[in-house]
Amino acid sequence: MPSVCLYFQVHQPCRLRRYSFFDVGQVHDYEDDAENRRILDRVAEKCYLPAGALLLQLIEEYGGAFRVAFSLSGVVLNQMERYRPDVLEGFQRLSATGCVEFLNETDGHSLAFLSSPREFREQVLRHRERIRSLFGQEGRTFRHTELIYSNALAAAVEKMGYRAILAEGTEKILGRRSPNLVYRPSGCKKLKLLLRNYRLSDDVAFRFSDRNWAEYPLTAAKYAHWLHRIRRDEAVVNLFMDYETIGEHQWRETGIFDFLRALPGEILRHPDFCFRTPAEVAAYGDTALGDRFEICPHQEIDCPGFISWADEERDTTAWLGNAMQQDAANKLYNLETAVRRRKDEGLLRTWRMLQTSDHFYYMCTKWFSDGDVHRYFNPYESPYEAYINYMNILDDFSQSLKKTRKGEKR
Amino acid sequence: MRVLMFGWEFPPRMSGGLGTACYGMTAALAGLGHRITFVLPQDGDAGAAPFLDLVPASGVPVSDNDRDDGMETLLRRLTLRPLPSLLHPYLDPGHYRALYLSKGDRFEICPRFPETARVYGPDLIAEVLRYGRAGGVLARTLSFDVIHAHDWMTVPAALLARRISGRPLVLHIHSLEYDRSGENVNEEIRAIEREGVEKADRIIAVSHRTKRMIAERYAIPPEKISVVYNAVTRTEAQRAYRTEQPGERKMVLFLGRITFQKGPDYFVEAAAQVLHVLPDVTFVMAGAGDMMGRMVERVGELGIGDRFHFTGFLQGEEIERIFSLSDLYVMPSVSEPFGISPLEAMMYDVPVILSRQSGVSEILKHALKVDFWDVREMAAKIIAVLKHPVLAGEMAEKAREELRKIRWETAAELIAAIYGEAAGT
């Protein structure tokens, strides 16, 4: 039975205040609380609350046949706990239906795996614990920040006990194979790899309201028809996208809510189709031995370098592509030993906040091909301003690490 | 298209952005096949402008030496018509008076233009009007399809040529009296400028900023104004200098006229703040102008004289040299319709900090931008570029890519289309 696996990423960056060189040594709070709150409020009203209510209604209406997964970054969890507990409660209500899976990721929405295996592990364990206590769910599926993926990451994730991992279904690793199958990461024994069908996902996430698109307007019936046309030997269509697609990137006026409301019905009209969460897709692969979706050993994906879901390149250059980004990341992770030696929760929290991938994304200079998306999400006038602001903060942070230590010795 | 252009300056004698721009676009227009008669003021000191050797009595230049690839095409389609005059692009009434007193009696008798007054005007406005009569009557003897004039000083000539020939006038605005003088405008100059923008058939503005100012200050319908950005020409000499190794001490450059419009005072104040944090930096102010004395005094008051140098007016290779030695170029202009010099700095891989109050900031992404009055932010950004070589390197690298897209050929195509619209073809 082919399944549709719908997963929404929920994340809001921690925006930094405008931090001048002349603030170094003077000002020690780095976050733009007012801006973070303002944006969370806006997205809550436009997306999180109405979309959550709609999904809850759909789950009840279809009596468990409609299922969905979320991954909430630790950064957005912090903001919800602080400013909008009502939004968090909405997610808890969804969790209570038993039809919603919550994935695990790095708590700081970070790129820690690329710089510090220890920090990566700690952030994953921390996020796993938070999801367990907030939603009572044991993490079975892992997704890395921005869907970054490699063989090494898969191996580390398997070792941590996960059953499934998500990645981008790019031709770079698939060649001519289909993204609509469950694969095994090269070097792993049990871990299942679910690949995003980027065409069908982006039809909704990017193209839904594009009037120049040949398929505009996209109706749920038309979209369901495309899903129903997948080959009979294919197992799953993975639709992964930002949750903010619903109501924020695609405004209510585009008809995105009507589309979502009609979608489960249109998909389930085909008797062979069902919805599954990532963990269920992975488990189904295990139990369905002999079935035509059995995972064959040759269905192995080899991915020696890093891939992601960003930009045309589908690599990590959106965060670590230029000299400024690499410089900032190196300087940040060079502080790791000093930060840990301090054994100070506050300093550790700040260091983790500074690891959030968005800070590096804002420094991206690949403006000419992927310019529009970067600009839309960038609070800085230019990548150079982003770098300067970040480095000023890092300067102050590393100074305060030293100062405190001297103070203690005295 | 045959163009009668009232322009300014020709290499190698260039005193600023207006001459550079006129030359760049003229060369590119000639490259597109347009034939241009280029009328320009030529002061009596013939020795100071060797290019005139290229012009024989007929006015058609034919020269075998002293020319590079671009020059050759240009010269084939270009006729230079120098007219005796004391005018140059950056005169104000006071400076003109001084110039007149020193040179006014040395008017060169020009047998080709017997009808013109043979005495320079005693003040700037009189000289502009006199030049206008001399230039305008050229329209009687020449055939052309369109008139293209640059800035207020050429307005009387262009309007007379328009009246005589009945051909359309395209007026190119590189700067307005409001840019040059703030709110203390010279009323006579403003009157000439106003007549020009009102009577011109089409207006070209060097930026949207300038277009807005023309539309607002002179109540001109915006649809009559087109924006064409300036560009830069890369020359062989400039490439040769790029390899020069700068010294160990970082150098921050201001290059431009030391006048109200260019904001030199903000640069001096920012320098003092930077030196407070990074004492081992050199600041250079290259150029001359009526605020220079005050700037020297202020540098003394701030006690930063050992780190702040004035070079006086630079030209030609000196400019190339100073760019190649710089680690950062700052353009703090109070009001800059366009501003070509940041593009020149970028050609030497020098990172750039720009005033947001400049037209060029509309097209440059790979530069840092500040409000000219925000001295603290200017200082913070200077410090950032000097402190982080990675930042300077990234900016220079991306700017190099950006520069490749800023070409006079593109500007010339837009200008040619405006000629076509004005001439109704």
Question: Which features does this protein show?
Answer:
heterodimer; A: 410 residues; alpha/beta; 7-stranded beta/alpha barrel; 2 domains; 5-stranded parallel beta sheet; 3-stranded parallel beta sheet; 11% strand; globular; B: 425 residues; Rossmann fold; 7-stranded parallel beta sheet; 6-stranded parallel beta sheet; 17 helices; 13 strands
Description of the structure:
Chain A has helices at residues 33-61, 74-83, 85-96, 117-135, 151-159, 171-174, 198-205, 220-228, 256-268, 278-287, 317-320, 323-334, 336-342, 345-353, 357-361, 367-376, 383-409, and strands at residues 3-10, 68-72, 100-102, 141-142, 164-168, 184-185, 192-196, 236-242, 246-247, 250-251, 274-275, 300-301. Chain A has 410 residues and is an alpha/beta fold. In chain A, the strands form 4 sheets. In chain A, strands 1, 2, 3, 8 and 11 form a 5-stranded parallel sheet that branches. Chain A has a 3-stranded parallel sheet with strand order 4-5-7, sandwiched between helices. Chain A has a two-stranded parallel ribbon with strand order 6-12. In chain A, helix 1 packs parallel to helix 9 (256-268), helix 2 (74-83) packs across helix 3 (85-96) and helix 12 packs parallel to helix 17 (383-409). The longest helix of chain A has 29 residues, at 33-61. Chain B is α/β, with parallel strands linked by helices and 425 residues long. In chain B, 43% of the residues lie in helices and 15% in strands. Chain B has helices at residues 17-31, 69-77, 93-103, 124-136, 138-141, 155-165, 177-181, 187-199, 208-218, 236-241, 264-277, 292-302, 317-325, 341-347, 375-387, 389-404, 408-423, and strands spanning 2-6, 35-42, 78-84, 146-150, 169-173, 202-205, 225-227, 250-255, 281-286, 308-312, 328-331, 352-355, 368-370. In chain B, the strands form 2 sheets. Chain B has a 7-stranded parallel sheet with strand order 3-2-1-4-5-6-7, sandwiched between helices. In chain B, strands 10-9-8-11-12-13 form a 6-stranded parallel sheet, sandwiched between helices. Residues 46-68 and 111-116 of chain B have low confidence and may be disordered. Chain A binds chain B through residues 20-22, 322-324, 327, 365, 367, 381-382, 384-385, 387-388, 391-392, and chain B through 277, 365-366, 368-369, 376-377, 379-381, 383-384, 388, 390-391, 393-395, 398.
